[in-house]
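S1.2 Input.
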Amino acid sequence: MHIHILGICGTFMGGIAALAKETSHKVTGCDTNAYPPMSSQLEALGIELIEGFDSTQVSLKPDLYLIGNVVSRGNPLMEEILNRGLPYTSGPAWLAEHVLAGRWVLSVAGTHGKTATSSMLAWILDYAGLRPGFLIGGIPQDFNLSARLGDSYDGKKYFVIEADEYDTAFFDKRSKFVHYRSRTVILNNLEFDHADIFPDLASIETQFHHLVRTISANGLIVSNGNDQNLERVLKKGAWTPIERFGESQDWRGSPADFDGTFSVSLNNKSIGQLNWNQLGQHNRMNALAAIAAARHAGVTPQTSIAALEKFQGVKRRMEIKGVVNGIIIYDDFAHHPTAIETTIAGLRHRIGNARILAVLEPRSNTMKQGVWKDDLVASLQDAEKVFCFTANLGWDAPAALKSLGDKVQTSDDLNTLIDMIKKSAKPGDHVLIMSNGAFGGIHGKLMNQLRGKSN
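S1.3 Output.
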């Protein structure tokens, strides 16, 4: 079968493309502004990418079109598909029918930490020999790809999926995760986000409860017991056993030592110590959730701890892009105030009094609308310097950040922003670049400038 994917360079649809290719389908796709790591993965798979959504692509005559949620009415290719009555479906619907059916699905949902926790869980199952399939909204360093089918183990097929609450497609406004028929579900946290599709927090809670309604009685919900929004969702009704993680919960982790080591306990009984290289309290919470979910699939917590001690992390999650003249450049996906704050706090715990230069592109639809502008100051407070890219914003970033004083600089021109960072950075600094997009290739351009090279 020939499948043509609209919006193929999104992390989810790119993963769908990889799975379809692995099942021997012919796969092509189209999108705009492709950038790594997904564009690199698709290129490595030999999947043909077409720039844009021109209606002439119907001449490819695929058997089926898969529609990403980036596509809306008015898209010229989508309009041509509709006018001709050509077959199409959504990525989640195709995945549920052709990949997830008959598998033990382990889903990771939440506003933050989905990619990291999914990667940890997939790695634990793989380390334990369960040979899981997975679809993750990033590229785990341990696998170097975002999706694979996996294999059977002891008559079971396990599949780990990053379960996004974002809508499925323009013709299906349910959250993606209701399609997956999950058996094990991690609920990491819940905050307001995606202001382009959700009017308020209550509407997101409704979608999370739809997910809870789909989990079987022999399944398991692993939930952040310290998150009151999640507790409110569960109080609406749950028909599945629940294990909670966090402070004073079933699964607990001690505060980390200076080297990142922390102890893990279940029901006040010590299980062991985890000594790893991941930063921050948020990652310790992610680890507790992954250990609990893996236990439901038959992996002992001791094996999970051993696996996580070898866990290498995820690309674009505190990924070191390079070191130039003693200045360390990081790439991170953080784009919500909570994620920004926890990312900076994790780096601070590791580097002590060294300077953090936080570089932010408010790129998500929610950020562009200014929903979180009043929360940014607190999230950036622990950085010594803050640089904010202000192009295409619907709000006044300099005014919103003015209480940070002279430690903040803003620009709507990328080259000007890079020059500001270059002039400020000095040996021993940690430059933390945060965006959920390509950010104009700022990482390489900055490193070239620091080396004295032109871009």
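S1.4 Remarks. Residues 281-296 form the longest helix (16 residues).
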